[in-house]
Amino acid sequence: MTGSGAFADDLGPHKIIEVWEPKLGLEAILVVDNVACGPSIGGLRMAPDVTKEECFRLARAMTLKNAAASLAHGGGKSVLRADPKMPLEQKERLVRAFASALRGESAYIFGPDMGTDERCMAWVKDEIGRAVGLPAELGGIPLDELGATGWGLRHAIEAALAHLNQPLQGARVVVQGYGAVGYHAARFLAGKGARLVAASDSRGAVRNDAGIDPLALAALKKHGKGVAEFDEAQPMAKEDLIAVPCEIWIPAARPDVIDEGNVDRLDARIVAQGANIPATAGAEQHMYKKGILSLPDFIANAGGVICAAMEYHGASQSAAFAAIAEKLRRNTTEVLELAARQDCAPREAAMQMAETRVRRAMATRRWSIF
Question: Given 1.50.40.10, 3.40.50.10860, 3.50.50.60, 3.10.450.50, which CATH number is that of 5-142?
């Protein structure tokens, strides 16, 4: 069915498909937002509480992200309502079934997202041949294993710090959501002299102002433990993570973790959005008025989709990572300079830049809407 209602505008959505198969327990949604620049790329998110609204918002974020990164791809997103920690055999059955249901939807290319990984993309490729973020054995560039999104975040943050005339050396980092994105961002930043001082996951949070070893914390997670079990830091309430003083605060988990109810507690110089839509519109405006530089999601965390798109077109890992560094630095600088000239929030400047690119692409199409 076509897009309608509160989520529709002149950019999209182009197509919405809901998949329901009660015998398998399959309940899933695909939103292809805009394909003016080319077939859409967007991750498959698996979570028991994921909503249609979230899918719409994430699909639009992918349209803007791909356009901002000057990729020949539009934006889309798929969500599967299920527990990603279910038995592997059951998870494989659901992912394969969903992929099969979308076999004919060539306007959408699957990628990994929260709750899915390279192995899931291998299942999708086996079913329909249309996936990115594949295991290396299948010719892919494993995004989570190598840390493509975290690599991009590091370069976006460096560009933002240069804009502020602040050094990365010694900067304190807080990571909300210590998974693949959060870990690699912390690792790459620590390699340049920054210091991880607090982190959280779904089970708890820890803090150590003297510094936390990102690799040691990741090793604990690999053994199935939560960050709160880390012996070299003090446990703390997850909701207090937002108040930890730092130069760089990285939300790398679910949407809307920064909202009107907690943004006043934020004590950071830069918020680098490693997750998609991690802050509400009201919180974004509050950060701008408070003087906190918030790097928009579709600018700061575009490393993963840049890598995925280059993988899809046959590029090497080294070429992909070089492109991520170049594009993230350039786009971050461009957005911050535009925001300064227009005296507006970085998100407003980023939206203007990305939407301009989408509309230019739309103007070249026979049917200009999509």
Answer: 3.40.50.10860
CA-CA distance, 296 to 99, in Å (whole number)?
Answer: 30
CA contacts within 13 A on the Cβ side of 356: 7
Q: What is this structure's pTM?
A: 0.88
User: In which element (H, E) is residue 323 found?
Assistant: helix 317-342
For the chain, the structural domain boundaries read 5-142, 148-301+330-348
Facing residues of 161 across strands? none
Distance CA 168, CA 203 (A): 29
Cα–Cα separations (whole angstroms), residue 205 to 165, 175, 191, 271, 274? 31, 10, 22, 18, 18
Catalytic residues, by residue number, are 77
Whether domain 148-301+330-348 has CATH 3.40.50.10780:
no
Which run of H or of E encompasses 216? helix 214-222
59: Cβ–Cβ under 8 A, 6 or more apart, which residues?
Answer: 12, 13, 31, 32, 33, 40, 42, 75, 76, 77
Per-residue pLDDT 10s for the chain (370 aa) are 344 456 789 999 999 999 999 999 999 999 999 999 999 999 999 999 999 999 999 999 999 999 999 999 999 999 999 999 999 999 999 999 999 999 999 999 999 998 999 999 999 999 999 999 999 999 999 888 889 999 999 999 999 999 999 999 999 999 999 999 999 999 999 999 999 999 999 999 999 999 999 999 999 998 989 999 999 999 999 999 999 999 999 999 988 999 999 999 999 999 999 998 999 999 999 999 999 999 999 999 999 999 999 999 999 999 999 999 999 999 999 999 999 999 999 999 999 999 999 999 999 987 544 4
